[in-house]
Amino acid sequence: MQELITAGTVKAAIGNLQYSLEENGAYSTEIPKAKDAGSYEVYYKVVGTNNTYDYNKAKGKVTVSIAKVNQAVLNITNVTGKKYGDADFTFTTTGGSGTGEITYIVPAGNGVLSINGSTARIIGAGEVTVKAVKAGNKNYNEISAELNITIAKAAAPALIFPNAGNLTYGQKLSESVLTGGSTGYGTFAWADGNIIPTVNNTGYEVVFTPSEKTLKNYEEIADIDKKNNVTVTVSKANPTINLTANISVESGNKTVTLVAEITGANGAVKPSGSVKFSYKTGGNFTELGTAALADGKASYKWKNVADNEYDIKAEYVGDTNYNTVQSDIQKIDTRKKNQGAISFTTISNKTYGDGEFTLSITGGNGTGEVTYRVPDNNGVLSITENKAKIIGAGTTVITAKKAADTDYNEADKSISITVAKKKLTVKAEDKLNVIKGSVRP
Predict the structure, then answer these.
(1) Hey, which of 19, 85, 181, 364 has its CA 20 to 30 A from 294?
(2) Whole-angstrom distance, CA of residue 206 vs CA of residue 243
(3) Regarding beta strands 411-420 and 350-351, do their DSSP bridges make them parallel or antiparallel, or are they unpaired?
(4) pLDDT over 90 (residue 425)
(5) What is the mean pLDDT of the chain?
(6) Over the stretch 111-146, which tens digit does the pLDDT of each residue have?
(7) Model's pTM, two decimal places?
(8) For 21-158, where are the E strands, in sequence order?
């Protein structure tokens, strides 16, 4: 407590000075005192019994101010040894004066710390300046302190590599979707997406690319740890097979040259192995012989063939990347002529969702009807007469057959067609719901 004014003087014959903090309050000769800073009005008057004085006019007031004082030096307790990924921690201070509340502040968008009350949450590695403000009160001015804090990077994360989606031989690695793995740290991709993986494989290289967040908050991941072989399950492909029979006369005897053309996946290694050729004139098929494939073709000469009608077929035995496939059974009559080769009119690239398209061929001979077919339950195409309707994405085989007539044997041709998946487009409405008082994202 301190006296607000210095005592005034008046002659004893007149009376004495008395004081009060209220104009109409109780007065006394004691000097008014105060403890807290602020503005005070001290009222005074002369009190006495001398009739020669008008005591009603012997009064006044003095305005007195007590200034606030500065607080003691404020310090934020040092924070060391923190790294990204550590738990929340609490700030404390020493020093300061009075009962003012302490508020902790970091710059907006600092990317290192967020603060709720005195609790700090690490949101990134780096440096940030924390400011503590101790509020003033009626006796003390506000005071603040700052502390520079460094949050170290966390140790390089141990990566878990993703799993690869299944493929069919002929598809590129880029078509195998990588799922799972440590995607919270970045992205994974095939080192070379153009590779066509084989059925028997020990895996192909996948490369990890760290995100900006990972680069900022973690120690550098070693190059050797950013690469790993990931195995891909590859199913054998179904090749297409086309069988032709060419009838000729050699040394007075009929010879039928059977040619099987095995077409594999586009851009992949051609099918290898061998083809078995068989015939029948009723009853069961009899194997004629086996021929090795050379550049996708195998041929067999069936000699001394009697004039008759025969059923013939070819069966590719498959290899490490291709399944076994059997040709359609063809009817030949060695008394008739061969048709010229038939070919499909070019079919443009197809995507699921495209409209139906028309099939047509060129080549062949005679008046035989042309029909088209696809395997049952193929899930890709359905055919009505010469119209093909897309029912799903994938690969299937279309076979065109030009029937025999009185002069010519039947002829057929098979091709593989792939219908691509349709790209999915997702469109979000441009709306933002904001609740009053909420933080914008």
Answers:
(1) 364
(2) 42
(3) parallel
(4) no
(5) 93
(6) 999 999 999 999 999 999 999 999 999 899 999 999
(7) 0.72
(8) 33-34, 38-47, 59-66, 74-76, 89-90, 93-95, 102-105, 113-116, 119-122, 126-134, 143-151
Helix (H) or strand (E) holding 214: helix 212-217
Question: What would the two tokens of residue 72 be?
Answer: 């003691």
For residues 188 and 122, the answer to whether their CB atoms sit within 8 Å is: no
- Report how far residue 168's alpha carbon sits from residue 146's, in angstroms, rounded to the nearest whole number: 63
Distances (CA, A) of 48 to 10, 12, 26: 10, 9, 16
The count of C-alpha atoms lying within 13 angstroms of the C-alpha of 134, restricted to the half-sphere facing its C-beta, is: 22
**Strand runs (DSSP E) across 173-263, as ranges?**
178-179, 186-190, 204-210, 227-230, 234-235, 240-250, 253-263
Would you state the pLDDT for residue 51?
A: 85
* Full DSSP string of 108-122: TT-SSEEEETTEEEE
Summarised one tens digit per residue, pLDDT across range 258-286 is 999 999 998 899 999 999 999 999 889 99
The amino acid at residue 384 is T
Of the candidates 338, 335, 339, 384, the residue with the CA atom closest to the CA atom of residue 358: 384
Euclidean distance between CA atoms 328 and 243, whole angstroms: 8
Q: Where are the beta strands (DSSP E) in 269-391?
A: 274-280, 286-292, 297-302, 309-316, 325-326, 330-333, 342-344, 350-351, 357-358, 361-363, 370-373, 381-384, 387-390
Look up residue 405 and give its two tokens.
């007539």
Q: Which amino acid belongs to residue 139? A: N
Are 4 and 64 a contacting pair, CB within 8 Å?
A: yes
Full DSSP string of 263-280: E--TTSPPP-SEEEEEEE
DSSP 8-state assignment for residue 219: P
Q: How many CB atoms lie within 10 A of CB 127?
A: 10
Tell me, what amino acid is at 118?
S
- Of 205, 245, 296, nearest to 411 (Cα)? 245
| pLDDT the model gives residue 184 | 96
CA distance 89 to 113: 11
Query: Which H or E run contains 332?
Result: strand 330-333
Residue 439 pLDDT grade (very low, low, confident, very high; cuts 50, 70, 90): very low
* The token pair that represents 426 in the structure block: 């997702």
Q: Which residues pair with 13 in a beta bridge?
A: none
Structural tokens at position 354: 């495209």
What six digits make up the tokens of 241? 């097979």
Closest CA to 151 of 129, 122, 130, 114: 122
Sort residue 30 into left (φ over 0), alpha (ψ -120 to 50) or beta. beta
Q: Which residues pair with 302 in a beta bridge?
A: 256
- Write down the residue that tokens 């005679």 correspond to: 366
Question: Residue 408 burial (CB < 10 Å; 0-12/13-18/19+)?
Answer: buried
Residue 385: HSE in the Cβ half-sphere, 13 Å Cα cutoff: 2
